[in-house]
């Protein structure tokens, strides 16, 4: 890794410090259930067995339920979560308030009222539609 790339990476971790800390905590807690690690556009993808949601993005770390086969790096879920990674890069320390909490609440409310995570309606509004746009997810993608 070149010096410039190293400095940029350190600055990203600092800019996204709340997400980075949460991600490291999740890695420690989920370590026994991590069944694969991959990368997508320099983000770290961790495949989690029996994860309760399809995916979670925290800074440079993307956690995906292993049943969604995230090894297929062009999959819809990977691109959607990468869209959240871009949001994190843009918003830095405001990401959790502006995107993380609204995204989690949206998922809980929609799943509580008869729709599964990622089902119809989940990606139709803020911040999910924005993540799809940034991650280049087409509405017709599987």
Write a structural description:
The chain is of the alpha+beta class and 142 residues long. The protein has one domain (3-134). The protein is 48% helix and 15% strand. Strands 1-2-4-3 form a four-stranded mixed beta sheet, sandwiched between helices. A hairpin with a 2-residue loop joins strand 3 (55-58) and strand 4. Helix 3 (76-91) runs antiparallel to helix 4 and helix 3 (76-91) packs across helix 5 (128-134). 32% of the residues are buried. The mean pLDDT is 87.
Shape: globular
Question: Can you summarize the main beta sheet?
Answer: 4 strands, mixed
Count of helical stretches: 5
The quaternary state of the protein chains shown equals single chain
Compact summary:
The protein is α+β, with helices and mostly antiparallel strands and 142 residues long. It is built from five helices and four strands.
Task: Please write out the topology.
Blueprint: H1 3-15, H2 17-30, E1 34-40, E2 43-48, E3 55-58, E4 61-65, H3 76-91, H4 95-112, H5 128-134
Parallel strand pairs: 2-4
Antiparallel strand pairs: 1-2, 3-4
Helix pairs in contact: 3-4, 3-5
């Amino acid at each position: 890794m070149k010096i410039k790339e190293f400095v940029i990476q350190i600055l990203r971790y600092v800019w996204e410090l709340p997400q980075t800390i949460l991600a490291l905590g999740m890695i420690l807690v989920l370590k026994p259930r991590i069944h694969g690690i991959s990368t997508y556009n320099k983000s770290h993808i961790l495949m989690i067995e029996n994860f309760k949601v399809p995916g979670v993005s925290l800074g440079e770390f993307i956690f995906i339920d292993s049943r969604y086969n995230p090894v297929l790096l062009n999959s819809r879920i990977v691109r959607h979560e990468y869209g959240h990674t871009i949001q994190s890069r843009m918003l830095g320390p405001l990401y959790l308030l502006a995107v993380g909490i609204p995204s989690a609440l949206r998922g809980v409310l929609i799943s509580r009222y008869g729709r599964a995570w990622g089902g119809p309606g989940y990606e139709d509004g803020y911040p999910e539609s924005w993540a799809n746009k940034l991650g280049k997810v087409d509405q017709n993608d599987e």
